[in-house]
Amino acid sequence: MKGFDFYRFFFVLILxxxxxxxxxxETNIMIRAKAKDAKFIGSSIGGAKxxxxxxxxxxxxxEGMTIGSTGxxxxxxxxxxxxxxxxxxxxxxxxxxxxxxxxxxxVTVEALGPYNKKQSSVLSSTQLWVIPGKDITGDGIxxxxxxxxxxxxxxQTHERIKGSEEIDLTANVVMMCxxxxxxxxxxxxxxxxxxxxxxxxxxxSTEVELEPAEKPSTFHAETSLEKGLYEILIYAYDPETGNxxxxxxxxxxx
Length: 254
Fold this sequence. Notes:
Elements: H1 2-21, E1 25-35, E2 49-54, E3 60-65, H2 73-78, E4 95-101, E5 105-113, E6 122-130, E7 136-145, E8 148-154, E9 159-161, E10 167-175, E11 193-200, E12 205-209, E13 211-212, E14 218-223, E15 228-237, E16 244-253
């Protein structure tokens, strides 16, 4: 009889413990990163890094990368959007976060992208309440990533150039999803201002405008410089959307 009382007491303790702790439920949240004035950031440019955190404690509840395609160009860029209409499909880039929570939890969702382009990566975030067992799917949480990816192709970092030579200034400029910039294209190269700011070691600077080249997403100019050390900053700017992007390098003129 005493043994029976012990087991019954032990069983009651377990039930009390369960009722106090509650039951954690796996809750799914689809998270996507979308380039401003462009498409979704996916596998073709390395994806966006996603973090889901408890907004109070800062604990990471889940993390991963957006994978998949940039999405349907016709739907995203050419058609008028209607309320509740999904911009994504089953192939569109995203990260499906799975978090175990016992009660409604206030979370912070962060997207850093495009993750593989460190000089261009932008952090976007939002906060929301997540309810246990209440999934957020479809387009899910869409975080906008503004800007351009700018890569200086020429001159090379720390390149030594003779003062008598013309300096080739060439930059690659794409949308944050990797979408190409072309003349008269969806992302029109002639719409964007692309310039080099060349600063000498004494602090004086000059600007050189780069023009669209024949190759998509490529901008080019030539200039000459006196002997010295120089920093070259090339930026892209869209006056309509406010998108911007920058890359820098340093050269030596002999």
